[in-house]
Amino acid sequence: MKNNIIKSRVGGKSKRSGELLAQKLQAEGITNPKVLQAIANSPRHIFIPEILAHKAYDNTALPIGQGQTISQPYIVAKMSELLLGKKGDRTSSILEIGTGSGYQTSILAQITDKVFSVERIKALQFQAKRCLRAMDLHNISMKHGDGWKGWISKAPFDAIIVTAGASSVPEALLEQLVDGGRLIIPVGEQTQILKIITRQGDSYNEEQVEAVRFVPLVPGDLL
């Protein structure tokens, strides 16, 4: 029954709202057409508590329970754009660390062939799965696990995106990239910097993008 309620929330004004949000993000510098189209197509309001639905298409982060947040749409779009690279090529497999609400997952699922997503909080993973099913997105595999360890049995990945702030770059994630693959990750504790790390054989090239603020990437202790 609850999944039917979520499905009923997908329609309505969400398409127009998504299109307007995509236009706002384009004005703020997001240029990749695949990312903008995915933003336009995604009903962000179903990924947040219904009481906050009136703020769903504002360019702001919002609480989703369990001490977690749904990221600001600009950051979701920016990280997705960085993940695709300057050429904007479609990648075949992406690992997402931190499913959270599932909104970022829904964007990734529309710009790549396969998404593997890891979440340490079971309740959030369960709710995200309901929302993604309501959108009829079926190229997503989900795991309840420790994001610091990645998903070794599904590796290597063309790209990895981390949606929580890591105190340092997890070695396991670097090892799970293909040669030429990209890791998009916020690094730091009080101050976080969004970084692009590209694998080049056994070495890694690091580029700093901008200052960001995410909830911490917590190792171990699954909930």
Write up this protein.
The chain has 223 residues and is α/β, with parallel strands linked by helices. The protein has helices spanning 2-10, 14-27, 33-41, 73-84, 103-111, 122-134, 171-175; strands at residues 62-65, 68-70, 94-97, 115-119, 140-144, 157-162, 177-188, 192-200, 203-212. A seven-stranded mixed beta sheet has the order 5-4-3-6-7-8-9. Helix 1 (2-10) crosses helix 6 (122-134), helix 3 crosses helix 5 and helix 4 (73-84) runs parallel beside helix 5.
Provide key terms for this protein:
7 helices; 223 residues; alpha/beta
Structural class: alpha/beta
Per DSSP, the total helix count is: 7
**Helix content class:** 25-40%
> What's the number of extended β-strand segments?
9
Instruction: State the low-pLDDT regions, or none.
Output: none
Query: Within the largest sheet, what's the order of strands?
Result: 5-4-3-6-7-8-9
Quaternary arrangement of the chains shown? single chain
Radius of gyration: 16 Å
The global form is: globular
Mean pLDDT: 92
User: Main sheet, how many strands, which sense, barrel?
Assistant: 7 strands, mixed
